[in-house]
Amino acid sequence: MKTQFKTMFAVAATAAAVSAFWLAQDATEVQAQNGMSSAQIPRTPDGKPNLNGIWQTMNAANWSLEPAEARHGPLAALEAGAHLAFPPSVGYVEGGTIPYKDGMREQQQENMRNWLQRDPTTQCKLPGVPRATYLPYPFQIFQAPDATLISYQFAGADRIVHMDRPDLEAQVDSWMGHNNGSWDGDTLVIDVTGQIADTWFDRSGHYHSGWDMHVQERYTMVDANTIDYSATITDPNTFEEPWTINMKLYRHQDDNAMLLEFKCVEFVEELIYGHLRAPGDPIGDGVTPIY
């Protein structure tokens, strides 16, 4: 675990240093050549939209990608009243509903009825793509010409987007997939393959088959602090046809904005290993208060 942490820290530090160096270059000449004013979207020295920064959604996509009414939380949380109830969702799927193949919707409905036990994020497992984008936690983009790092607050998840290796294919399946990036005009396009099947799209139990799924994300800046985000999911094992979600991402503009630690593994130890606690031992670590 310590080695993994050191590796992740080194990757993040390197990405931050490269990104800072890249942005330190004078982009004035490039902006002038393209007729851009300071009021338009910020750009890197090579004229690409500058996506560096901390971003977050402001929606209910994590609870349901499809339109949904507010509803009770899990039975175990009824004493919490409104605190753990599901918020309503306007829906983020083009066309309104996800096009499951015959017989596949039943699995989603069963997942939803048992979401607290089955949702992988309950046990602090990595959320996968695209769900990592619209979890109610911020994430940070470190942009550079050859590679882009996207680091997420939830569970310390991150992924490296290869910008200069279009032919590189996934070698093994993984939680956050294999990520190849390219530019379509001013839109950053990320093709994600090689994800494992153990991730969901939301708390309503929408799922996929894993390795055969292809996710194509598109990040388009509409102004200095807003991104139009879309993700098209293609999974012939689960869905009749590709389907797309759309939403806005907003930049954190506070000068003190930063990603804080949310290493949730320790929060699920009781859930997973509580039955192994010796009789009389206190719940938790005996130091951190549990209210």
Distance between the termini: 29 Å
Structure summary, number of beta strands: 9
Helix percentage: 10-25%
Helices and strands, in N-to-C order?
Answer: HHEHHHEEEEEEEEH
Number of helices: 6
| Alpha-beta classification | alpha+beta
How are strands sequenced across the largest beta sheet? 1-2-3-4-5-6-7-8-9
Query: Mean pLDDT, rounded to whole units?
Result: 87
Low-confidence stretches: 1-11, 23-39
Indicate the overall shape: globular
Overall tally of structural domains: 1
What Rg, in angstroms, do the CA atoms define?
A: 20 Å
How much β-strand is present in the residues? 15-25%
Main sheet record: 9 strands, mixed, barrel
Structural commentary:
The structure is a single chain. By secondary structure, the chain is of the alpha+beta class. The chain has one domain (52-276). Helices cover 18% and strands 21% of the residues. It has 6 helices and 9 strands. The chain has helices spanning 2-24, 28-33, 105-113, 115-118, 131-134, 269-273, and strands at residues 53-56, 139-142, 147-152, 158-162, 178-184, 187-193, 214-223, 226-234, 243-251. Strands 1-2-3-4-5-6-7-8-9 form a 9-stranded mixed barrel. β7 and β8 form a beta hairpin. The longest helix is centred in the N-terminal third of the chain and has 23 residues, at 2-24. Residues 1-11 and 23-39 have low confidence and may be disordered.
Quick structural summary:
This protein is an alpha+beta fold and 291 residues long. The chain contains six helices and nine strands.
What descriptive keywords fit this protein?
291 residues; 6 helices; globular
